[in-house]
Amino acid sequence: MSLISKRGVSYVFAMFLLGGSVAWGADPAVLKPRVPPDRIEEARTWQNPFLETPERLERGKAIFHGKGFCVTCHGRDGKGLGNIPGLRGKLPRDFTDKAWQAARTDGELFWILKNGSPGTDMASFIPLVLTEEEAWDVLLYVRAFGGT
Ligand code: HEC
Fold it and tell me: What is the reported pTM?
């Protein structure tokens, strides 16, 4: 069974085409905030309103592998996939990196799910693909990769 549904593949390709001049490859500056400076103060005040429970983690995992198709770029192990057909190079993100986990607030990650990471192939998922509650659930799962 293919992990990537046909719909998932076309999303990935659409994002690649829309992404245009995105530079992939080693990113020495993963710790640099991705939320623009004029938005970050507000984003950092947002907190996950949902406590981590086994049910929410399960839901987050299902979204990561399913309708969010996060797995197609971020990988089953959360370390980011290289050599995705149609995409070049390695993802500049490793969710198991504790330094990266510590550098980000939940609010900043939520902002990225709302707006995408400007200038990269990380697209916006809220509200077209995920509700806000689903986004918080998948972020609980992203946090779990860091062992936190
Ligand atoms: C088309 C490929 C792709 C898909 C699908 C994708 N991402 Fe990303 N994601 C990226 C890339 C590329 C980056 C790095 C962006 C950057 O360096 O700013 C990223 C970065 C991130 C970040 C880190 C932002 C930061 O502040 O450092 C989070 C969190 C994230 N993605 C979550 C998700 C979630 C959750 C999903 C599924 C709902 C998802 N991504 C789906 C490509 C993807």
Answer: 0.82
28 Cα: distance to centroid of ligand 1 (angstroms): 16
What does the radius of gyration of the chain's CA atoms come to, in whole angstroms? 15
Reported as a single tens digit per residue, the pLDDT across 11-41 is 544 444 444 334 444 455 788 899 999 999 9
The burial class, CB within 10 Å (0-12 / 13-18 / 19+), for 23 is exposed
Ligand 1 residue neighbourhood (C-beta within 6 Å):
12, 15, 27, 34, 68-70, 72-74, 91-93, 104, 108-109, 112, 117, 120-122, 125, 138, 142
Provide CATH code, domain 28-145: 1.10.760
